[in-house]
Amino acid sequence: MSRLLLCLALASAGAVAACGTDDITVNVNTGDAGGGGGGGSDTGGGGGGGTDPGPGPANEVDATISGGAGGTVDLEGESDTSAEGQYYATVAAGLLDVTLFSTAGAVTFHIDATDAEMPGQFTVNMPPEGSFATVATAGMISNSTGGSISINQCPGAVGSVITGTFNNISLEDAMGGAGGTLSGTFRATLVISDESITCHVEPETDAGGGGTDAGGGGGSCDLSVCDGPCCPYVEPIATCQQGCGFSSACMNPMDPTGCIQCFEDCVTDSGAYEDAACSSLYPPYEQCEQNSGCAELEGDAYDSCLEQNCCDEIAAAF
Known about the structure:
By secondary structure, the protein is α+β, with helices and mostly antiparallel strands. The protein is built from eight helices and 14 strands. The strands form three sheets. The protein has a seven-stranded mixed beta barrel. Strands 1-14 form a two-stranded antiparallel ribbon. Helix 1 packs across helix 3, helix 3 runs antiparallel to helix 4 and helix 6 packs antiparallel against helix 8.
């Protein structure tokens, strides 16, 4: 659970002292836009925002299907070239389509970002409506029925690299049976792009905020007052995620993903993703917290991690 959300929720309830001032006010260096999850890197010249994809092959998938009739299936493959039907990523009219290939099968996914921004997290359902994923293995085709896909960069021009994760995507086979759960990571290079996906633009630092030089100095990300578009959802999300910690979902050693799913459901059920003002801003904050490793930290280490990586995302959302 995001400790920041919990502290913001307590603050909104008048219990600021329960978190301490340091937990609610984050003073940061708003410098190097290319570091961590804050400013990101425009790899292809047409995108913007998100984390730097870093070095790696042009295309890669490292994913697992677990719990299906076929047992555990590892989907692992990479290629420095792109070919239709194997490794192929395109953007057209606000839609992102990606195909990833491995010796065990292929994963394709379709993200509808016509009314959203990237980077972000997108809930997937049964095709053909909205966003969805399809997996083909050993003569069997399975479609997504739930879960989400996170996109860490905003797709730009041809040659742009995007990375992301499959977040506990539930699958159903062609016969209506359980197809297992897809989890893992991917990397893809755009071969076709009209640059039509809206990119989340980081807010500029004002003149009084300390500038944007990479050498230090720093602006301020003051969260002592929460008045951003995602603030109405802070308290219900934090309360729900606290409840997850005491639920069977987080206490079942046979299901290590249950707790993660419970946390994700809290955000989905809060309505934050359905609120146009918040839906494009909350996922980048959440993704930055995860990608930077902040979510795994506690105390001063957590605060320092947010200061270094996620202030822009926090300021925009909250």
